[in-house]
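This follows on from our talk about sequence and fold. Please put the record directly below this note.
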Amino acid sequence: MKPKHRAVINSEDMDDFQSGQVGRLPQDAMHRFLKVLRLPAGEAVELLDGSGRLVVGKLFEGSDGWGLQDARVEAAPLQNAPMLLVQAMIRPAKLEPLVQKATEMGLTELILWQAERSEIKTNAAQFAKKRARLEKIALDAARQSGRRFAPVIHGPYTVSELEGHLVGPQKTLFVGDLEAEKWISQCFQSIKTSDTAEFGLVVGPEGGLTPQEIGFFEGLGATGVRLSPHVLRTETAAFPFLCALQWHRGRL
């Protein structure tokens, strides 16, 4: 039977586990299993690191603390169904729930970028601590939703830095545009289903994309699409795209 309880650990702690041996529980995992969930010895649990690796074992109390008995280490599988969001910078109070919910919807990569009309102005170095918090939120959302992978988070980049991240042979890029002729669902109807092809959406800031920014993304091959009959906030624009993509892949 698949264990019902999971905890997130870092990659260094994951390296300490070997199949068939007893591995010590990291402090955060111990707190979750014993203090929060109050699980007894012998309960089957899982540990994941967000990069696909997984450890399954039974809680065990030894003379030097708690660990996992009969641990089974599973290597990272291939991650299918890439889903990319290219999100203009918004305030952390809006960005954090976006990361959480998009992770639950299957997002695999988030690229933050600095739009001309973005609410806040920052760069990758200044944003390092906030990005670490977003990564922690994504990891916890992956655990909660039963995913083995957490989305990779990049940026924020300037417009000129984006090109190398958005061009590829299997990438299909859309850009949210209130004046576009096609709906996102219509675009997917004309595209062959594939779990390996990468689909991405560019979302602008609250003030919208400038004509120059729209021209830049169209120059990279992006197709303008309508995401809703209504005007969406920048932090909700991604969800019609993610739902439509999951439907396109037969997962809704």
In short: The CA atoms of residues 246 and 252 lie 6 Å apart.
